[in-house]
């Protein structure tokens, strides 16, 4: 079921010919293979002792019918009741789920296990169930849905549709004669609005994710800068610590004297070496006397 712009539509979503292909219910045959037949359904189980079973867990060889109301989320009309008002077929149609301990639980609001009845989803959901058709043959289920806005209490209703099941190896006959979709035009408009709403939500989520990533990157850069500043400050403190140790208020006079004395010795040494070099150069540069007497 989908809802948008104050309108609601009930259709059929299938993954057989593609991924999540939307079709009008009256254009699709729901085929229940002969292999679905079970002749030994345990006593006390809805549909016992025999019937065509479509299990709660998916069997790739069988159809897996369920319902979905996620496409109502953006409309506000999220409390959905799917009403199966009529069953035209050779037998009964059972539908239920299982509890945590294997017990059977009804999904219909009247507490029973067979149609007619109403399925309610108070919030957007995707749900599967176990189905049992008591006899082979062609079944037509007449269905419409009502969606309610929990904030305002207002409701919108879909047109009624017919879902056709061919159960077992039986001729289809003229099951589809006279069937047509009542609101295909409305469905096209609603589906386009839902698609756009979904695209907008995806774009908003991507933008938000990009903004969060940018903020996280900026925060990480700031942390690295702060770490570098901290290391530089610690280095300066270490240098100042050495000077403080030398020239601080509590320094030992002998240490200062030794440092100063050592400095004087170094300077004196430099001066002495310089004088020696000068004398040496003078000696080497003196002229040689070549006029001695004979």
TrEMBL record:
Question: Is Membrane there in the keyword field?
Answer: yes
Is the keyword Transmembrane helix assigned to this protein?
A: yes
Q: Where are the transmembrane segments?
A: 254-278
What is the name attached to this protein's record? Surface-anchored protein
The entry's keywords: Membrane, Transmembrane, Transmembrane helix
InterPro entries to which the protein is assigned, alphabetical = Surface-anchored_actinobac
Region (Disordered), start-end ranges: 220-241
């Amino acid at each position: 079921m989908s809802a948008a712009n104050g309108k609601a539509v009930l259709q059929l979503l299938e993954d057989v010919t593609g991924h999540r292909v939307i079709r009008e219910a009256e254009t699709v045959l729901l085929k229940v293979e002969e292999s679905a037949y079970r002749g030994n359904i345990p006593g006390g189980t809805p549909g016992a002792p025999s019937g065509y079973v479509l299990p709660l867990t998916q069997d790739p060889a069988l159809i897996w019918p369920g319902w979905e109301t996620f496409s109502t989320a953006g409309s506000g009309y999220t409390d959905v009741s799917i009403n199966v008002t009529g069953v035209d077929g050779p037998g009964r149609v059972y539908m239920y789920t299982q509890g945590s301990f294997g017990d059977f639980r009804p999904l219909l609001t009247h507490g029973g296990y067979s149609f007619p009845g109403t399925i309610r989803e108070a919030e957007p959901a995707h749900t599967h169930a176990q189905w049992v058709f008591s006899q082979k043959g062609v079944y037509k289920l007449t269905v419409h849905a009502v969606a309610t806005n929990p904030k305002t209490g207002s409701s919108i209703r879909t047109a009624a549709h017919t879902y056709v099941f061919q159960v077992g190896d039986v001729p289809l006959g003229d099951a589809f004669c006279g069937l047509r979709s009542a609101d295909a035009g409305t469905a096209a408009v609603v589906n386009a609005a839902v698609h756009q709403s979904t695209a907008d939500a995806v774009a908003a989520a991507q933008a938000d994710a990009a903004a969060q990533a940018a903020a996280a990157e900026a925060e990480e850069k700031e942390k690295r800068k702060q770490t570098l500043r901290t290391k530089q400050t610690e280095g300066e403190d270490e240098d100042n610590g050495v000077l403080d140790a030398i020239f601080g208020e509590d320094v030992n006079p002998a240490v200062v004297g030794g440092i100063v004395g050592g400095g004087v010795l170094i300077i004196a040494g430099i001066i002495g070496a310089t004088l020696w070099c000068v004398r040496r150069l003078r000696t080497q540069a003196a002229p040689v006397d070549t006029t001695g007497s004979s």
